[in-house]
Amino acid sequence: MMDDQPGATCPLCGGGDCCFRLERHGRRYWTCRDCDLLFLDRAQLPASADERRRYSLHDNSQRSSGYLAFLERLRRPVLDWLRQRWPEHVSAAGNRPRGLDYCCGPYPMLAELMAETGFPVVAWDPYFSERPRSSLVAEAPFDFILCCEVAEHFFRPREEFAFLIGLLAPGGLIAVMTARHDAVDRLEAWHYLSDETHVSLFSRRSLDWLAGRLGLRLTLRAGDIAFLELVEAG
To answer: Would the pTM count as exceeding 0.90?
Structure first.
């Protein structure tokens, strides 16, 4: 059910044409009619301490078969993209292409796996890294950025992606793994809404809007993988 009463501003496009979509676990979610983002009511955003506590529960330091299979869903298509672009693992500048694992969590397993296949990756997380986000600017540009189950946590998704674009080399890739709400049959039963830190839920239309506004080329890969490539000028 949708409630047409105004009361929310979209954190992706900034539009005010938003409607109440549903309530789940006492949390209210809105849909933007302009970009189709599904987002948590701004008054219910989790506190930083609650976010950190939730993320600390993620045990991603063990190479279990299940966790490796989960990471492989993103790692494999990224490796295919990198090897096609740089068959010799060497960039135009004569260096190995470098990546960033953005919001890597308490243990950077994905960064480790990428490095083992010849692609060094810097890992950073707002809660578990000892340096500020601004320090990444000095390490840019990156040839690829990994966002593995990250975008759904963005309070201000447009600002976050704009920041990431500023870290990308020309023609670089932002590889996103996030479940899309338009692929769900029954939104009321969607497991993504069981996590109070999932505050910005995308659809294909949301990603199309983002790509069009920020100069990116969108390619949807298998499952919940989306590639956002920075369009090179000229």
So the answer is: yes
